[in-house]
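Annotated sample (chain length 385).
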Amino acid sequence: MSDYHDYVVSDVERIALSAWLEHGSIKKAAKALGKSKTAVQEAVKRVKDRASLQGYAPDKDMIHTAPDTHFVKGTSTLYKEGEAVLQWVKTSQKAEDQYKAMREAVESLADDLPRIKPIESNASPADDLLAVYPMGDPHLGLLCWGEETGDNHNLEIGVNDLCNAVHRLVNTAPSCKQALIINTGDYFHSDTMDNMTRRSGHHLDVDGRWMKIMRAGIKAMRQCIESALEKHDHVTVINVIGNHDDHSSMFLSVCLANVYENEPRVTINDAPTATHYYRFGNNLIGTHHGNNIKADKLPLVMATERAIDWGDTLYRVWYTGHVHHDSVKEYSGCTVETVRTLAGKDAYAVSHGYSAHRDMKCVVHHREHGEIERHTVGIPMLRGA
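Output written by the structure step:
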């Protein structure tokens, strides 16, 4: 027989739930724990919502639970003389319900994540410079067999290439006070254990289990952030939603936001939006994965979504990924740039003749004069070092 404890995913929820069950009310539980009523109520609600999605809500006579792979989308109960005698449970794997439950689970798990202590900087960076580090489609977890694709690639190689590229670019960049790390999407190669893209159902070559890739990816991004903190006073991170990691990209932001919540030198932009913006003086920077808004539409999107910033700036640029090759196109009032990836080419890419070079860049923006310099590091340079 299920009970609410079966749906707890963090110590915070376990303590709040136990106190609520013991004392019989949220108010009494909060008083006993010395916590706010809202904090206890939200923790208990997360557990109850998660349980109800599986069909467990005893106050509604729902006690027949669905398997972990399904969610309950409806029940029908037959009552006789006020007693429930029969119950029919309808289940589904609706994507929206799966996402809601998964996001709540990640947020609950993040309650128990350790919070890093603030990292001190000894640098004296320039206040009028911004270092932008666009990560083009890292595809962590991608598996390539060298005999088939010309170059071996796996999770370990991908993580090493990404962390080493950021480390080298930070060392060669000027001493800027502000840094902006842009993950342009498809940070993770796969979004679930099914190893398929959600929209097209395209089968993916993946190195290892999904949780293993998630764990490695979170650690890799933390390493990149800490490399940036060695030179820059403040680091802002944007994780764009890609077509390979619709959900995982948002989980990455949620986890990082919790880990760095006590670090005043780090800002994690965890808005669940397709487009993101960053204003630096006379510069307006937008970022989007590039998969479902055409490049020629992006200037109007920026002008619409950031009308005031558009009017107050002179240098406007989009950084996008998705296509894995370099391109820069200047439109009226705005430039759209796609950036290369460090990831290898899988069997699908090779069979379709994709052959762009692989590198990562640091682009330096001046507060008043826009882009003034850029630095590049490619795979041959990384592997040679």
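Annotation: The CA atoms of residues 153 and 344 lie 6 Å apart.
Annotation: The chain has a mean pLDDT of 85.
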